[in-house]
Amino acid sequence: MIVITLVFAGMAWYEWHYLKQRNRRTRTFWIVGCFLAAAFLYMSAVFCIKDFASPNKLIEFALSPVLKNIRY
């Protein structure tokens, strides 16, 4: 969990400086911050709750007809 937090802190720091250098609007900071927060919360939930919904099952379900056609 500490590694996940450090990775997201590094990404937030990098994004903050990137947006500051390019003089982006406050709205852009909020959008990027909210996406980072949502990704962090989802990653934390997946890490802490082992039975939490994973996007892998959704991707497999959505692409299973295509994969069946490709294999045969």
How does this model look, in words?
The structure is a single chain. The protein has 72 residues and is mostly helical. The protein has one domain. 83% of the residues lie in helices and 0% in strands. Helix 1 packs antiparallel against helix 2. The longest helix is centred in the middle third of the chain and has 23 residues. The radius of gyration is 17 Å and the shape is elongated. 0% of the residues are buried.
Search tags:
72 residues; membrane; mainly alpha; elongated
Number of helices: 3
- Give the beta-strand count: 0
Strand content: under 5%
Principal-axes shape call: elongated
Helix-strand makeup class: mainly alpha
Gap from first CA to last CA? 42 Å
The helix/strand series, from N terminus to C terminus, equals: HHH
Question: How many structural domains are formed by the residues?
Answer: 1
Largest sheet: number of strands, sense, barrel closure: none
Helical residue percent band: over 70%
Mean pLDDT score, rounded?
A: 91
Low-confidence stretches: none
Rounded to the nearest angstrom, the radius of gyration is: 17 Å
Provide the fold topology.
Blueprint: H1 2-21, H2 26-48, H3 55-71
Helix pairs in contact: 1-2
Short overview:
This protein has three helices and no strands. It has 72 residues and is mainly alpha-helical. 0% of the residues are buried.
